[in-house]
């Protein structure tokens, strides 16, 4: 079964034609999809999309570079976390912060999410980029939660050993995995091969724009193929590994019972 642990259905370029196409494709092909959000309005949309297919499950998150707009709204965030199935996308990333005013607020906002994840035992989809991979990892370790996914980890490959030891999951994939340049191939191969087989999971992240758009059922097998090639195995083995790992990650969480029933 295809399980996509990180997809943005809210991207503006998924217009009124492509978004319904993607959702219909997910439903028809039974692709379990974790719909990520990046602020409260996009979470509201993810909740709507989840009503359009039983295979879509919304995750609540506010991306780090939105932190300035949310500086007086941590209470709202806490409340939504208490109701959420999962958290995502959250994280820490100063370099890609379009709004530089978010920088001093990113860590405090992330800690609000980490506390909620600990309290409500929630799965988290985490984005640590721009040199903050180590800081993010250290902060994560200081909380008592193992249900963390470091999404498309981009720090030094050597650090993956430490991530494995902590039992944190790492997700990889993109709609462009069949179009990687040689240097991107090297970058991802060096990292994807380091992740422990019990901790690697698969994601699409974003669907492509305009005429390059391809629905999840077309993109997902291409990701499996690329990752299988890196790890010198078959697409089927990667698909099964992903399913196994996702099942372990969701565990016996009563909020995710419906999802578990669709997988087993
Ligand atoms: Zn994302």
Q: Could you describe the 3D structure shown?
A:
This protein is of the alpha/beta class and 264 residues long. The protein has one domain (3-263): TIM Barrel. It has helices at 18-28, 40-52, 74-83, 103-120, 133-141, 160-166, 182-192, 216-230, 235-250, 257-263, and strands at residues 3-7, 32-35, 56-58, 87-92, 124-128, 148-151, 169-172, 200-202. A five-stranded parallel sheet has the order 4-5-6-7-8. It has a three-stranded parallel sheet with strand order 1-2-3. The radius of gyration is 17 Å and the shape is globular. Bound molecules: zinc ion.
Topology, pairings included?
Layout (H helix, E strand, L loop, with lengths): L2 E5 L10 H11 L3 E4 L4 H13 L3 E3 L15 H10 L3 E6 L10 H18 L3 E5 L4 H9 L6 E4 L8 H7 L2 E4 L9 H11 L7 E3 L13 H15 L4 H16 L6 H7 L1
Helix pairs in contact: 3-4, 8-9
The structure holds zinc ion (ZN).
Overview features:
264 residues; alpha/beta; TIM Barrel; 5-stranded parallel sheet; 3-stranded parallel sheet; 44% helix; binds zinc ion
């Amino acid at each position: 079964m295809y399980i996509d642990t990180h997809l943005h259905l809210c991207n503006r370029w998924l217009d009124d034609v492509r978004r319904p196409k993607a959702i219909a494709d997910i439903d028809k092909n039974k692709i379990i999809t974790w719909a990520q959000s990046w602020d409260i309005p996009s979470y509201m949309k993810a909740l709507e999309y989840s009503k359009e297919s039983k295979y879509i499950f919304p995750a609540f998150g506010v991306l780090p570079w939105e932190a300035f707009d949310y500086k007086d709204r941590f209470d709202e965030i806490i409340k939504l976390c208490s109701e959420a199935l999962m958290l995502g996308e959250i994280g820490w990333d100063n370099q890609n912060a379009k709004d530089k005013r978010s920088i001093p607020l990113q860590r405090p906002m992330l800690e609000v999410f980490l506390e909620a994840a600990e309290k409500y035992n929630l799965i988290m989809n985490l984005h640590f980029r721009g040199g903050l991979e180590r800081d993010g990892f250290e902060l994560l370790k200081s909380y008592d939660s193992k249900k963390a996914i470091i999404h498309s980890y981009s720090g030094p490959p050597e650090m993956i050993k430490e991530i494995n030891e902590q039992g944190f999951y790492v997700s990889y994939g993109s709609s462009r995995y069949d179009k990687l340049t040689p240097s991107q191939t090297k970058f991802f191969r060096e990292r994807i091969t380091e992740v422990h087989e019990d901790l690697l999971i698969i994601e699409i992240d974003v669907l492509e724009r305009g005429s390059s758009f391809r629905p999840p059922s077309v993109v997902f097998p291409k990701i499996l193929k690329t990752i299988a090639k890196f790890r010198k195995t078959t697409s089927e083995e990667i698909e099964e590994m992903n399913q196994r790992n996702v099942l372990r990650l969701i565990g016996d969480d009563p909020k995710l019972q419906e999802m578990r029933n669709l997988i087993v």
